[in-house]
Amino acid sequence: MQIAGVYCYRTFRAKPLKNIQRGNRDLCWCGGSLSNFEWHRSYGVCSKCGTYVNRIPPLPEELSRLYSFDYYWHVRQKSRGNPSIENRPENDRTDGRVQYWLDLIDRYGARKGRAIEIGCGSGVLLSELKKRGHECIGVDVDEKSAAWIRESMSLDIRSGIFPNIELPACDLFLALDVLEHSTQPLHFMKRAAQLLNPGGPAIIQAPIDRYSTRKPFEARFDDAFDDLEHLFIFTDKAMRSLAASTGLEIVSLDDTLWLMGEMAVFRKP
Question: pTM of this prediction?
């Protein structure tokens, strides 16, 4: 039954976007060359920073289709057994992630000021920050998703692909399970650094391989190395390199929500 379930999941997941156009990538975001990755032929391993790089990423123009309200939230998430956008606020509060994020922000972030969240999901975290007195702005790739969040959460949500979207300066920058989907992690973090006011933290949640296991992420390997969505799987060395390349300081590489929910906390000097 388990094997049959995995087969049905993969078949169902692949069918709606089986004609997605893909490109080719031969270098890491940092410019490093790629060696073969024994566990997944679609990925290479950077010789400089250890990032796992998707060699056949979807073309940038396909992202709006991949992350659309109808497909991403009501086909792809359902096929994985995950809640749709309508049920995410309750799910994210119940499973503890919202409280974890709030505690992390209390520890590292400004208690007041403007917060920007890229890829803001259902908007549940921003809605909690708004209650605490933050001015909140969210960004979603898809306008239909952005409209749903605006109406349901009464938030300022902009649609577009970061970093190519106009935004004001902020005191807190959030990107939770987003950086691994970005076609340009370096430009992503450079823009975050530009937007942050001095002293402001950038809290990034992403799959970061900081484990000693031979097969990265072990039980969650297939989730991590999803070559339709995940363009880069990072390491702590990669996070330090991103900091050095963007003028940000590393505050912490010690926090983890759960496997594949590793945190990197930066700060603008």
Answer: 0.93
